[in-house]
Amino acid sequence: GVDVIAQGEALVKASDCKTCHHPTNKIIGPAHTDVAKKYDFTEANVKMLANKIIQGGVGVWGEVPMNAHPDITQDDAEKMARYVLSLDGEKEH
């Protein structure tokens, strides 16, 4: 089957995520590995994070708002969320 984690990684690398998120270090936003550690890798959290990617938001990690990405589809945003949630070695459950 198609590897959604690899697809998500490619989407993250092609987007502007790296402006604010580093894989392992906090820059403006939290490191993607810290996001992975904070959230269980579940369908509900995939959908929640996908919505955050698309809509942006503020408040979970501090007061710096996350940019909205209205051009990213729900399907692609969920792949991106799956990639981020996989970074602490957790499999979807």
Helical residue percent band: 40-55%
Classify the secondary structure makeup into a structural class.
mainly alpha
The counted number of beta strands is: 0
Oligomer: single chain
Q: Helical element count? A: 5
Contiguous uncertain segments of 5+ residues: none
Strand and helix layout:
Blueprint: H1 4-14, H2 17-20, H3 32-38, H4 43-55, H5 74-86
Helix pairs in contact: 1-5, 4-5
Structural features, described:
The protein is mostly helical and 93 residues long. It is built from 5 helices and no strands. Helix 1 crosses helix 5 (74-86) and helix 4 (43-55) packs across helix 5 (74-86). It is globular and about 35 Å long. The mean pLDDT is 94.
Concise overview:
By secondary structure, this protein is an all-alpha fold. It has helices at residues 4-14, 17-20, 32-38, 43-55, 74-86. The longest helix has 13 residues, at 43-55.
Keywords:
single chain, globular, 93 residues, mainly alpha
